[in-house]
Amino acid sequence: MPDLFRKYLFGIAALVFPEICRGCGEWPGAGRTGLCRRCESEMPRTWFEKVPGNPVEQMFWGRAKIEFATSLFFYRKGEMLQQIIHQLKYKRDKNAGVYLGRLAGRVLLKEALAEKIDCIVPVPLHPKKQRIRGYNQSQIIARGIGEITKHPVNSESVIRTVHSASQTRRGRYERWQNVEGIFKVLHPHLFQNKHVLILDDVITTGATIEALCAAFSHVSGVRISVLTIGIAAG
Asked: What is the rounded CA–CA span in Å between residue 40 and residue 49?
């Protein structure tokens, strides 16, 4: 069976039978969702959470004050993570997002990072884009993290005020110009003296998260950390 056709069938089957593995299409095993143990082990982990000054943290050096930053997996076109996030964003497969969030939550607990944060803020979508998609994919991932770590998810107190153009094929400076000043913290008192974990699905240059950090810069005593499921690679 050609790879493209097989991936298409697996994507459809994952929506109808969410208990199958999204990687190989087989039963994932008792108590497992998303991927079977073998496919999950083949996901390209970065292990950045174990490396101070890792490449994600370096993105924000001199641009935003970050307590810690990490991405779980390398994100490459055509690979398993890209397919799962595509199902989440464009095929209304919310279970895929919850699965990714649970993976992230377990990493936060294992590395004792969960105990450092107070709440999770998914990167907001503009209301227009969210109406088209039906939901914010990062919010779904955050829900999965919250299930594991028991941290509250705050999706209402930070908004995206500008519907910016796509970031695809933009360089870092163009990406920053495209997102500068697009976020607003509606209820800053909720974040005063809190450690906020900003959550997004994939990070490329960090420009969007950098803009969100700038919106938090006026909140007294707030500390910011960053977690993404993937980091664009190659």
From this structure: 18
Please tell me the total count of domains within the chain: 1
Who contacts 127 (Cβ-Cβ below 8 Å, separation ≥6)? 159, 160
**Cα torsion angle, 127, 133, 137, 139, sign:** positive
From first to last of the 234 residues of the chain, give the pLDDT tens digit: 455 665 565 555 555 555 788 888 888 887 788 899 999 999 999 999 999 999 999 999 999 999 999 999 999 999 999 999 999 999 999 999 999 999 999 999 999 999 999 999 999 999 999 999 999 999 999 999 999 999 999 999 999 998 765 545 555 556 556 666 899 999 999 999 999 999 999 999 999 999 999 999 999 999 999 999 999 997
Task: Kindly state whether residue 34 falls inside one of the protein's structural domains.
Answer: no
In a domain, 29, yes or no: no
Rounded to the nearest 5 degrees, what angle is found at the Cα of 229, between the Cα atoms of 128 and 100?
90
Q: What is the CATH number of the domain that holds 140?
A: 3.40.50
Quick check: is 174 in a domain?
A: yes
The letter for the amino acid at 106 is: R
Q: Classify residue 7: in a domain, yes or no.
A: no
Q: CA 110, 35, 112: angle at the middle one, nearest 5? A: 10
Distance CA 60, CA 57 (A): 6
Domain membership of residue 117 as a residue range: 44-82+113-232
The set of residues, in sequence order, having a beta carbon less than 8 Å from that of 46 and lying 6+ positions away, is 54, 70, 71, 72, 73, 74, 231
At residue 141, the 3 state secondary structure works out as helix
